[in-house]
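Reviewers of the previous submission asked for a worked example of the structure-prediction workflow described in the proposal, so we include one complete record here. The input consisted solely of the amino acid sequence. No template or homolog information was supplied to the procedure at any stage.
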Amino acid sequence: MTMQAHRYAIYLAPAEPFRSFGSQWLGRNADTGAALSMPKGMEPRPADWVKAPAHYGLHATLKPPFRLAAGTDAPMLDAAVRDFVRGREGFDAPLTLRALRGFVAWCLDDGAEGPRQMHALADACVRTFERFRAPATADELARRRPERLTAEERRMLDAWGYPYVFETFTFHITLTGMLDAANAAAALARLSAAGIGLLETPLHVDGISVFVQPKPGADFIAARHYGFNGSTLDGAGAAYLDA
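From that input alone, the workflow returned the following structure tokens.
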């Protein structure tokens, strides 16, 4: 019998060299759940800078965390992801480091072909896996602070359970929690200094991943990575997908 996780999510787990550097910065390996040391040559950063993103593991959101809808189960989700990735073409997406909505993240570098392809991938994930998403509860919607959202973001929240999809989507790999201006500047400086040369290589996108939150409040862990070439690689949460 399949163990059902509290929540599932469709993420992009960044390829190397971003995965190792970012995971070390967050201090946590999402594939195993193990703690990691800081990137070589970087002075220790305050733990509260990364507490929030470390909880989710290094990733970019494609389909935000959701509880499974009635009539669906984890093996069905696994089969749907396998079908989704089949025959897709990989692509490169140049990244840049910036502050976004109060936190620091790797974001898409504007002007390249990568942003269009990434947006199309995220849009397809939101639509394709919507049937697996249980409707958001009133408490889940309230945690998004709808009173602070724009009208378009609120419309997305009501329709899709998340304010930043489709027209409001911005690809990002979160590297800090919410920071004030001084701490955001300090985080940008440390990440830039330790990651010299990192952003010269575009992010190669050749698959997507399912992450799971085993129980309420638990850290997210990778369950399975699905390559566009049909390959799969299991993470520590694989048992939450298999029959």
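Residues 7-240 form a domain with the Cyclic Phosphodiesterase; Chain: A, fold (CATH 3.90.1140.10). We consider this example representative of the routine output the project will generate in years two and three.
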